[in-house]
Design goal:
This protein is of the alpha+beta class. The chain has two domains: about 130 residues, Glutaredoxin (3-Layer(aba) Sandwich), CATH 3.40.30; about 300 residues, Rossmann fold, CATH 3.40.50. The protein is built from eleven helices and 27 strands. The strands form eight sheets. Strands 7, 8, 9, 10, 15, 16, 17, 19, 22 and 23 form a ten-stranded mixed sheet that branches. Helix 3 runs parallel beside helix 4 and helix 6 packs across helix 10.
């Protein structure tokens, strides 16, 4: 009987071992689910029909923070590799660094007080079916600490790898279009953004004409800072494009001004900009107000403060009409982004609270802001003004709107002269829009015949988050699977509290040293008392 029990146990162990070789069972016991793979990621991995090779370039003499980033990268790759139908291999190597990868210099103090410099490559290379793309492992926000940037980078790892796999596995390239015909920014002004978007899309430019359906082949349409009114035909075509499930990125100012006049004469009049789209945007749940936002959190402007014209003295002065906009952590578009720079921005207002639309503020001013109604005059010689005038807080400048929209023409006749290719749709499919009330956020500058990165400020030599914001906005608009939600993954940062650590050390020392000595002393005293009583009675 005992023999049969032993054989049964042995067979059960063999079967369990065989099953464990083919069936992977994993439980994520962490509170923030940091090791869990999103369903959208699993779906993408199921579609892979060829091996994936990954080369991690992050290697060398790494400090504790970058070792954590390296370990998190390896853990993610290994977790992806156990998904059914996926063959993923990786190696760590800094050989054959491809062109276009810029190393990161790390400056640290040694225990001797000296500064040491280390060169690292916080990137990974993914190869699939002979195609290779670069994954940026480190996301650096200058407004955050090193530990926070590393933590944000770890949170972003899954999104970064999935984004790269999306680019490698797509069989066809989706189309997007920049709209023309209303004084929008030209190719030169959006050169940097176009270059960034060309990694994902085929980009066209063109006017609307008078035929409906002309935009149907485009996944999204970008309207970049128009200066001339839209006709009723234009509005009808855009409206019906949206009703068919199209997506629109509106970058529209609420005011008109002349930057050339401002730079030449030091002042410019500012008047409301009439684009004839207020009724349409209002129907979609948002209003662009004809105001100027001012913010004490702003870019500086070089000003000659010298009284001698022969000896100019240029000093930085805060220019409140150039706000540094805060980014929302509630949206995958703006999560972990640096501030977005703007100039002469307007404000938006979310309206129609009972329309069932999901509205999320993306960009806003700081807690010390001001609104200037128009018409007005902007003068470079007039700066902040009284600080107590900046009483507004978190004025929305950009927002996303998602849901089922109602057509502006639901109860109106189509405009005259328009060629209809489909019946009027009064309600849309579930779709998305992004509205940005600051045309400057999408415009890149040029220097010595070369385009500057979008969001780069020449005077402070600082790169802001404009490019990432615009790219993420378009990715959000074209996302049908929900993989952009991976940018909202959150890992709790557990930093050591030095004060609490010192207190805990003292407590541990008391418990481990003093208390045992006290116990031994009490035991010794007790033994002594007992022995005395015992021998006293005998005598």
């Amino acid at each position: 009987m005992k023999l049969w029990k032993g054989i049964a146990i042995l067979l059960a162990l063999v079967v369990a071992n065989l099953l464990m070789q083919h069936v992977v069972v994993r439980w994520d016991m962490t509170n923030d689910q940091r090791y869990s793979i999103a369903p959208t990621t699993k779906e993408l991995l199921q579609q892979l029909d060829a091996p994936v090779q990954i080369t991690i370039l992050l290697d060398g003499e790494l400090n504790a923070g970058f070792l954590r980033l390296q370990r998190a990268t390896i853990e993610l790759i290994e977790e992806l590799g156990v998904m059914k139908g996926t063959e993923i291999t990786y190696r760590i190597s800094t050989e054959n660094i491809p062109q276009g990868i810029t190393p990161t210099l790390i400056h640290e103090r040694t225990h001797k007080g000296q500064t040491a410099q280390t060169t690292i490559y916080p990137y990974a290379l993914i190869t699939y079916k002979g195609r290779t793309t670069i994954v940026e492992l480190l996301r650096n926000n200058r407004g955050l600490s090193g530990e926070e940037n590393l933590n944000n980078s770890i949170e972003n790892l899954e999104f970064a790898f999935v984004e790269a796999l999306h680019a490698l596995t797509r069989n066809s390239v989706e189309k997007i279009a920049f709209l023309e015909g209303h004084g929008e920014l030209d190719e030169r002004d959006v050169y940097d953004l176009s270059q960034a978007l060309s990694y994902y899309y085929q980009i066209d430019r063109g006017t609307l004409g008078n035929q409906t359906g002309v935009l149907d082949e485009y996944k999204a349409v970008i309207i970049a800072d128009p200066q001339q009114p839209f006709s009723e035909s234009d509005k009808y075509i855009l409206d019906q494009y949206l009703m068919q499930g199209g997506r629109i990125l509106w970058v529209v100012n609420g005011v008109r001004f002349s930057s050339e006049t401002l730079s030449q004469s030091g002042m410019t009049p500012v008047i409301p900009l009439e684009l004839n789209i207020n009724d349409m945007l209002f129907r979609y749940g948002v209003r662009v107000n004809p105001v100027l936002v001012q913010d004490l959190q702003c870019l500086p402007l070089p000003v000659d403060v010298s009284t001698d014209p022969q000896q100019p003295n240029w000093q930085p002065m805060p220019w409140t009409y150039a706000p540094l906009l805060l980014t929302s952590q509630a949206s995958p578009i703006t999560r972990h982004l640096m501030q977005v720079s703007a100039t002469m921005a307007s404000a938006i207002e979310l309206v129609g609270g009972e329309d069932g639309l999901k509205k999320t503020t993306l960009l806003a001013t700081s807690s010390n802001s001001k609104l200037t109604t128009t018409p007005a005059k902007v003068d470079l010689s007039l700066f902040n003004g009284a600080e107590q005038d900046f009483q507004y807080a978190f004025i929305p400048v950009a927002a996303s709107i998602e849901g089922v929209f109602t057509s502006l023409f639901a109860h109106l006749l189509p405009p005259e002269g328009i060629e209809l290719h489909a019946p009027l749709r009064k309600q849309s499919q579930v779709t998305k829009q992004v509205v940005v009330a600051a045309g400057s956020t999408i415009r890149n500058e040029w220097q010595q015949g070369q385009p500057l990165p979008l969001g780069y400020d020449r005077y402070t030599q600082t790169q802001f988050g404009n490019r990432d914001f615009m790219v993420n906005a378009v990715l959000y608009l074209t996302d049908d699977t929900g993989w952009m939600s991976l940018r909202q993954k959150q890992i709790t940062l557990r930093l050591i509290n030095d004060q609490r650590a010192r207190e805990a050390r003292i407590t541990a020392q008391v418990i481990s040293i003093i208390i045992p000595l006290l116990i031994l002393s009490l035991v010794g005293i007790g033994v002594t008392i007992v022995r005395r009583q015992k021998y006293t009675k005998r005598t």
